[in-house]
Amino acid sequence: MSFRPASALGMSCGTVTIDPRRAMVLVIWNNRLKLYQLPKGRRNLDESMLAAALRETYEETGLHVTPLQLDVATRATPPKAALADTSKKPPNITEGHPSHEFVGACFYPDPQSETEALKCVYFFAATAECTDTPELGTQEEWEKLDARWIPLREISSTLRFEAEVQVVMKAVQDMRKSGYTIEA
């Protein structure tokens, strides 16, 4: 077990937003860093992780996305009503309970922090139509981001970070497991 104070941890949340009918993934082109990445950003005080993911996606892309309720294998405890026998200890991994649980997380040293910090980014699955028109003026003044839709088949050669490729593939896997059809 190790300890880090809250000041040495950065919690960010983002989405893997997919248009399943067209097999397109929403990404952002970061003009400052010259790379493609998933939309994400820091959680505000007292904000839920899912709310932060949806807000950050909207702020960075200008698109309102819809969170997906998926059957995600998670270490979260299922609700008591979902347990057949409440006298038994809940399972270590919960499956078969569709929820808005995050599909995965990425961890790395925070390159934007002035002091040593570990960044933890939690990603949630969402959907939107790639034909929707983004709203303008949703970004912070210092952000230089362009929203783009990338074909799913090109995601591994487009995203800069392999961990983000892995989270996209996990979201796709969970969507298919939950009954969504993603056209290829």
Automatic annotation (TrEMBL):
PROSITE patterns named among the record's database cross-references: NUDIX, NUDIX_BOX
Sequence ranges assigned to domain Nudix hydrolase in this UniProt record: 8-174
Chain ranges passing through the membrane: none
Keyword Nuclease set for record: no
Keywords of this entry: Hydrolase
Keyword Oxidoreductase recorded: no
InterPro entries cross-referenced by the UniProt entry: NUDIX_hydrolase-like_dom_sf (IPR015797), NUDIX_hydrolase_CS (IPR020084), NUDIX_hydrolase_dom (IPR000086)
One Pfam family from the record: NUDIX
UniProt GO molecular function: hydrolase activity
Protein known as: NUDIX hydrolase domain-like protein
Originating species: Corynascus novoguineensis
